[in-house]
Amino acid sequence: MPTISVGRDLLFKALGRSYTDEEFDEVCFEFGIELDDVTTEKAIIRKEKHINEEVEDDEEIIYKIEIPANRYDLLCLEGLARALRIFKCIEPVPEFQVSKVPPASMIKIQVKPKTSMIRPFVVCAVLRGVALDQARYNSFIDLQDKLHQNLCRRRTLVAIGTHDLDTLEGPFTYEALPPSEIKFVPLKETKEFTAEDLMEKYKADLKLKKFLHILEGSPVHPVIFDSKRRVLSWPPIINGAHSAITLDTRNIFIECTATDLTKAKIVLNTMVTMFSEYCTNKFEVEPVEVISANGLSAVYPDLTCRKMEVSLSYISSALGVTLGVSEVTGLLNRMQLPATKGDNIEGSDPTISVQVPPTRSDVLHPCDVMEDVGIGYGFNNIKQTTPKCVTQGRLLPLNEFSDSLRAEVAMAGFTEVVTWILGSFEENFDMVKRNSEKQKAVVVGNPRTSEFEVVRTSLLPGMLKTLGHNKDHPRPVKLFELSDVVILDPKKDVGARNERHLTALYCNANSGFEVIHGLVDRIMQVVGVKAVSVGDNTGYFIQPSEEPVFFPGRQANIICKGSQIGTFGIVHPEVLQNFLIPDPCSILEINIESLH
Amino acid sequence: MPTNNFVESSFWNFDTLFQPQQHPARDSHDTFFLKVPEVTQSLPENYLEHVKTIHEVGGHESIGYGYDWKREEAEKNLLRTHTTAVSSRMLYALAQGKFSPKKYFSIDRVFRNEAVDRTHLAEFHQIEGLICDRGLTLGDLMGVLNEFFQRLGMKKLRFKPAYNPYTEPSMEIFSYFDMFNKWVEVGNSGMIRPEVLRPMGMPKDVSVIAWGLSLERPTMILYGIDNIRDLFGHKVDLKMIESNPICRLGRQV
């Protein structure tokens, strides 16, 4: 879940009152966010730089608040404070407007054809007459960062550029040119570079090198120019220094270039709805005309509300409360969803008309509206009931069988262990002399370390590993595990299947082969399979085997009703050495699915 | 529910659960994607078209996500990140026949490609429960959760609004622990979204309430264990397993 850091005192100022940490925690709980941490600006920096210093009294307290991943309108102090003020009925939902600008004087941006090769879309808007101070400026930058990280998927889907409009002259163009032809002074620099130079230079920049892959190898790079061929930005890497925003900036030009148009619109809407409260005309955004390569034009931002008709009975029956129309509309208004009585025919099911504002891109279906009614009402205020359906419960037969078998093995004096399913190639194959088995296994594509390389095909290595870590345990050590391994299987839709195995180990001054053999006989007895002579397919018998993991001549296969279902034997001394086990041991492994 | 399949396709693990393809959870740094077998061999084609549509343009009163849904993404195999993938398969199977109310559960292993520490592992167990019927309410869900957690010894619960791609409403479940003098999160729950159920063919009036929790976390809290490796894995102390008393959680009156 995304976390935002907001200054506590600034937040309380925006909310119009102070809270104790506990009181604020309660407000967060009701609304569905979480006060994750209370810290200070300097403490965060100290933590990053690993310094230990004394706490000073005048440090600004920072609240770290966790917000739901689909609420882009809560990603900054402005949006969060506004949402809470509306929730507490201090103010109504704002009505966002696009200013009425005659088409001829509207700011324009022309998209050139080659952009479709690398980053096809751009949307823009203007915020007029903003008043920025340091806090608002920081918040503005932070929001772009948060959006870049989350919704924009680290700038791959959308990149935001913000500029001081008074340093520029429209109309603008959005083009894609070879990197050597893009020349400008980037932010934080004083001399000119080509995009080609910068691709090389930024390989050493901790922050920017992460985005170079988006343009790597492309014959053309995206770039935005004004009418005097000044570079506004080289998306998604960096903006030009010329149009950089300062505390004195009054008019802001926002451009979002993208490979996903839906997300670009959400990002643009989020930027303008959050910060248009600082415009001279509060909540008013100036539009920009985007003329695409084929000549079609569209005006952004699109701040129209989406109208939804939601049935009252749907809301009531899903939540399990009886609510009237006015109660529901009141609750929805508190949740930033302006609602009124629906226009429905007399006598039929009453409906609620909801105007979904541009800040609520998370509302996809009437169930989203229904949830907000529930939040407004308070989940904990809803009467708790029990479902009326009568059903018969039972365990999955394989699981029931597994549980019974576990109990039988435990009653034979063995202690159960549960081990990891993921492991290294070394442990699962090399150390148990089973190199040839590697091709049966499921292999992980992106393991962080060798510990997560491969999915086990046998319970044996995990069992030996556990014994190796419990060397001081009094002898005899008797362990078992009954759990799944995974084998490749072209007959399954995903290409692999689980197989339920049982493994049991005996370790002592003597190898205990007869103990493990005894356990095999006991297991077959409780499963109800008769012991028969070699070659008889009506029951089970054992046959000498030749597996490298076991001592030669001291190992056997278990043949049950014609198929081999398992093996047991004395563990080979080399294998014991690999797992650092000092005493001899015997082990069995059976595929219990064939017994079930 | 038959959860004996650790290898899953992105389709069942994410797409059928209305988790969009560019969602951060589908990042390689949260999920174990597989090299062998890399892609899934077969998917239900008819159903796949419905899932594609609901993601791209919506339907069934939803506006969808408005992005280009890619088949190649859905075909990528992984180690399941939640047992909800199996729940999805079960709901789909249920929707193919004549509907009758059902209650399902599972307790099994899941895999997350996250950094490991004292309380987090790359593999752990999830407990999951679902109830499918006509006319279920959020009040029903809370009632069931109260009953369920009481049997684990947790009697005082509170519910907090949350977000999951596949449930709406979603609620985090908090229980009051006298030993810590505070509320601790013990689980997650919600009503499955229509965007999950309707493409499967589930009738419109059928609701599914679901909840899940990890097995390790409450066990560690209730038994006072602070390092998860003391609880399971090869480093566990055998003496602890042998000397632990029988479990009587939730049975005291």
TrEMBL record, chain A:
Which InterPro entries does the protein's record reference? Answer: aa-tRNA-synth_II/BPL/LPL (IPR045864), B3/B4_tRNA-bd (IPR005146), DNA-bd_dom_put_sf (IPR009061), Phe-tRNA-ligase_IIc_bsu (IPR045060), Phe-tRNA-synth_IIc_bsu_arc_euk (IPR004531), Phe-tRNA_synthase-like_B3/B4 (IPR020825), PheRS_beta_core (IPR041616), PhetRS_B1 (IPR040659)
List required co-factors: Mg(2+)
Q: What's the catalysed reaction?
A: tRNA(Phe) + L-phenylalanine + ATP = L-phenylalanyl-tRNA(Phe) + AMP + diphosphate + H(+)
The record's keywords, sorted A to Z, are: Aminoacyl-tRNA synthetase, ATP-binding, Cytoplasm, Ligase, Magnesium, Metal-binding, Nucleotide-binding, Protein biosynthesis
**An example Gene Ontology CC term for this record:** phenylalanine-tRNA ligase complex
- What Gene Ontology terms for biological process does this UniProt record contain? phenylalanyl-tRNA aminoacylation
Q: Where are the transmembrane segments?
A: none
Provide the primary localization. cytoplasm
Enzyme Commission designation: 6.1.1.20
Q: Where in the cell is it found?
A: Cytoplasm
Q: Which SUPFAM superfamilies match?
A: Class II aaRS and biotin synthetases (SSF55681), PheT/TilS domain (SSF56037), Putative DNA-binding domain (SSF46955)
Name any one GO molecular function: RNA binding
Q: Where is the B5 domain?
A: 303-384
Q: How does it assemble?
A: Tetramer of two alpha and two beta subunits.
Q: Which family does it belong to?
A: Belongs to the phenylalanyl-tRNA synthetase beta subunit family. Type 2 subfamily.
The UniProt entry, under PANTHER family, shows: PHENYLALANINE--TRNA LIGASE BETA SUBUNIT, PHENYLALANYL-TRNA SYNTHETASE BETA CHAIN AND LEUCINE-RICH REPEAT-CONTAINING PROTEIN 47
Name recorded for this polypeptide: phenylalanine--tRNA ligase
UniProtKB/TrEMBL annotation, chain B:
Q: Name one GO biological process term.
A: phenylalanyl-tRNA aminoacylation
Matching InterPro entries: aa-tRNA-synth_II, aa-tRNA-synth_II/BPL/LPL, Phe-tRNA-synth_IIc_asu, Phenylalanyl-tRNA_Synthase
EC number(s) stated in the UniProt entry for this protein: 6.1.1.20
Q: Which UniProt keywords apply?
A: Aminoacyl-tRNA synthetase, ATP-binding, Cytoplasm, Ligase, Magnesium, Metal-binding, Nucleotide-binding, Protein biosynthesis
Q: MF terms per GO, please?
A: ATP binding; metal ion binding; phenylalanine-tRNA ligase activity; tRNA binding
Q: Which organism is it from?
A: Ceratopteris richardii (Triangle waterfern)
Q: Which residues form the Aminoacyl-transfer RNA synthetases class-II family profile domain?
A: 34-245
The identity of this protein, by name, is: phenylalanine--tRNA ligase
Names of required cofactors: Mg(2+)
Q: Which CDD domains match?
A: PheRS_alpha_core
Kindly list the GO CC terms recorded for this protein: cytosol; phenylalanine-tRNA ligase complex
From the broadest rank down, the organism's phylogenetic lineage runs:
Eukaryota, Viridiplantae, Streptophyta, Embryophyta, Tracheophyta
Its top-level enzyme class, in one word, is ligase
Localization annotation: Cytoplasm
Top-level lineage group: Eukaryota
Tell me which family the UniProt entry assigns to this protein.
Belongs to the class-II aminoacyl-tRNA synthetase family. Phe-tRNA synthetase alpha subunit type 2 subfamily.
Predominant cellular place of this UniProt entry's protein: cytoplasm
